[in-house]
Amino acid sequence: MRKQWLNSGLPVLVGATLAASAALAQAVDTARIEAAGQNDWLTYHGSYKSYHYSPLAQINANNVGNLSVAWMHIPGRSTRGLQSMPLVADGVLYYSGSYSRVFALNGATGEVIWSFFPELDEALISRQTHSPYNRGVALGEGKVFVGTMDGRLFGLDAKTGKVLWETKLIDSQKLTVGFTGAPLYAKGSVIIGAQGGEWPGRGPIFAVDATTGKKKWEFLTVAGTDEAMKTWGSDSWRTGGGGGWMPGTYDSETNTILWGTANPAPLYDWSGADYKTQGARPGDNLYTSSVIGLDIDTGKLKFYHQELPHDAWDFDSAVGEFVMLERDGQKLVVHPNKGGFVFVYDRNLGVKNVWRLVENINFVKDIDPKTGALIGRRDFPVGKVTEPPLCPFIGGGISWNAGSYNPKTGLYYKIGQEWCMTLDIQKTTPVTTPQAQLNIGADFKMAPPPGGEIYGHLDARDPITGAKKWEVRYPEPPLGSVLSTAGNLVFVPDSRGVLHAYDAETGAELWNHNNGTGHQGGIVSYSVGGKQYIAVAAGFGGMLADEYAPNFGGVYKSMPRDDGALVVFSLK
């Protein structure tokens, strides 16, 4: 073993076997991510297909009962918990913690190889609502890429953690927002979107050259084209919100980046039924609450579908899943929307079907499955919203946590959230000086569904038709991501702190383990030296998790806050 002092200022140990493995490592490039090899987890959802699935089967339905903790890593200063999605390449696990801290660990032992702690403006962070958590990194060309809350993107040497380049993309001192979501690497570019649809900006998405860090292009999700400008009355585009705070994916066949966009600002509008001509932002507000296809080389818009024209409910489309499937000779894309519906598209984002994952939905009566048109909108004037409460709650019928598609079972495993909210709509004025201020436009409070109780559920569904095979219910909605594997397993980290393993065909629970604190982050599987591991982020306390103690009590009242750990399991 050899001792190194790297940029964290902490001593670290590097195993000789890992060093040998790294010497044989292949470059992480577009072709390798597309191939989605068994041993690694190279991009946010595992590959550009966004399956969030592992083809490893050493851990399986027959032996999962022998799963136990192999190692843990404590990142420290986990303000608002741990929300990162780990990545793994050639035996090295990379993940981020709060304050955009990045760690490279031996995937077999957890020993620290290097760590990176960027210097950040604490005064700026204190003004932000969507921080200081970070949801992940990207890998490519021998680098690790991470965004920061003060609007920077870093390219780090994957072997040493050394800063190779640093690019300022957002004037966060003025606009307040920065980056909390993971970047996406593809075709020599690093793509990342700004956080915070509730902030008065124009929601940029950026592409940066992975080698040099130089900005290649910028696309504005608010009024980014002449067509879109016409959908923002009264110059409201100047403070329209938007953004794309979760990573999308890359379709190499069409050279297209697929990305989901955030809600407009103010979050709640008081225009009522006259939203086309009245209120804070008259019109459909393109390209907020949309899915968009951008040319990866130029950033030019190729196609789009606005899932919620004039979103008045914060049920945006920034969920990062674009599950790329083929069925009956058709190439399809499955994209969940925060409102509780799942959209099925062709590869040009033409609507093929829309189905409900969630039962308690009343912001619309329905969505036309052939056209995607909203049926029976529920828009609000100023004042308290009359009964029934608005469903779902602001946390969404679907949240940002990833689902999983298993090509062996043909099923899509996805968390649904059954909760609602009371609402008091208020007029607001955008504040942009001296710094941009949050622009919500309502007071709201979690409420149970009419005639029922709040709960969450894991569904096993046909991803194209929505037909349900089985369901598992939880007393509170889980906020962690879902993982399925070739071992006929589905893993769900729940909000109470329990990691569950289910039979992928039947939903029968086969194993569980209490990690001691709630989950609101990622889960992946990988292999090192012929041994399979399951890695899950534990640590509660983000914006949505903060609602659990006052609303549900129980274990959430005593659950650790501002704490977190990466917990890694293997067979005994």
TrEMBL record:
Leader peptide range in chain numbering: 1-27
InterPro entries: PQQ_b-propeller_rpt, PQQ_rpt_dom, Quinoprotein_ADH-like_sf
Entry's Gene Ontology molecular function annotations: oxidoreductase activity
Coiled-coil positions: none
Every Pyrrolo-quinoline quinone repeat domain range: 41-359, 459-534
UniProt entry keywords in alphabetical sequence: Oxidoreductase, Signal
Cofactor: pyrroloquinoline quinone
Family: Belongs to the bacterial PQQ dehydrogenase family.
Protein name: Alcohol dehydrogenase
Species assigned in the record: Bradyrhizobium centrolobii
